[in-house]
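Running this now, will post back.
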Amino acid sequence: WTSPAMCAAMDHYFKVCHAEEEIEHLNVEIHHIITYLHDEDCYMKACITQLQIDHLPLTYQAQHYYNVQARFTSHHLCLLAKISGLHGFMGTILPGKSMKTNPGGSTGEPATVIP
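Update: finished.
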């Protein structure tokens, strides 16, 4: 610790260790994001299908929201696919199985309530 070169070497070592830990966390987080985006897409499609039966004006609004959301989803999926090609990526870009299956959860059966 007494010489600046040793201090810089130790700083560099710990930054590399932290970067490796961060890559491991990101591999998991990317998988979670992809799963969420997939589940949300399926949920919105199911909501729109339910609304088409009972309430066409609300269906239009939900479809409009879905169209906007779909543009951002496709953009994010494209960026995540690029990230998956980076050196050190050990995760997967396939959607997983969500644990949120309760009513209102992203994989639960939608229960649309028309006001």
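The helical segments are 4-54, 56-84. More later if anyone needs it.
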